[in-house]
Amino acid sequence: MNNQKGGPEVYWRGSFAFALLGLIILNLGMIAHGVAWYPALLFQSGARTFVAEPIGVLVAYAIAVVCIARTHGAYWDGILRTAIIFGLLAGTLEIINIGIENGIPFAVRGPALQIVFMLSIFTSWGIAGFRTARSLGSGRAGLLAAVCSAGICMLIAVAAGFLIQFFLVPPKPEYVSTWSEFKRSGWTDPRAFEVANTLDSGFTHLIIAPVNALAFGGVASLLARFTLSRTASF
Fold it and tell me: Do 44 and 192 contact (CB within 8 A), yes or no?
């Protein structure tokens, strides 16, 4: 009987874990494609680090997904349900943002739009933290929901970024050669730099997103606990 009661929860959690692991495998596959497509990358100074870093963090994400998928109880169910909703929402915003940056379906330049997308995504992680902290009465749960939603978002965003940069609209070498980052790098091969830059961008997003989520989720969780205490006092 206990197994039957836990069946639906185990099913949806396992299904989503498999979906996230599929995204991780997809990202790893696109990294392998980027290196195989242009193996001269590996002959550039420090290039192996650019390849190893995103692989390492994706493996860490995979371990985290497996560990979280093995948790049980209403506490984690509440965290994950909210994290999935806001992770998918933020991931969708990231896809739109990355697409517009690369001219899909149209190009819009300017820092204002980037700031709007960035704040919208960060705010969604904060809302995930607020809702969870308030519903479960736990600031720790709010932090976990915010971080999990950020992780889900970035797995989606990095997959979209790799897809665009490696397959749909890869930057032309002559354009890359005009980048200030390329000029400062000391590299002589703009195509190799393009691949390395894409890998480094994916790595940076995967690392920084949970940190930002801790900040926004922490503030939101404190606000949720404050509102709960205010409500209880009346």
Answer: yes
Strand, helix or coil for residue 231? helix
Domain containing residue 61: 2-233
> Quick check: 219 and 125 in contact, CB under 8 A?
no
Q: Which of 123, 118, 122 has its CA nearest to residue 100?
A: 118
- C-alpha distances in angstroms, 65 versus 13, 80, 132, 201? 10, 11, 19, 22
Distance CA 36, CA 49 (A): 16
Tokens of 134: 């308030």
CA distance 159 to 95: 9
Give tens-digit pLDDT for 89-138.
999 999 999 998 888 766 666 788 889 999 999 999 999 999 999 999 99
Q: What is the DSSP letter of 169?
A: S
pTM reported for the whole predicted model: 0.92
Using one digit for the tens of pLDDT, what is the confidence trace for 51-102? 999 999 999 999 999 999 998 889 999 999 999 999 999 999 999 999 988 8
Q: Greatest CA span in the chain, whole angstroms? A: 68
Task: Quote the CA–CA distance of 124 and 132 in Å, as a whole number.
Answer: 12
Cα separation, 114 vs 170, in Å, equals 20
Residue 18 tokens read as 């498999």
Q: How many domains does one find in the chain?
A: 1
Structure-token pair, residue 208: 């920084």
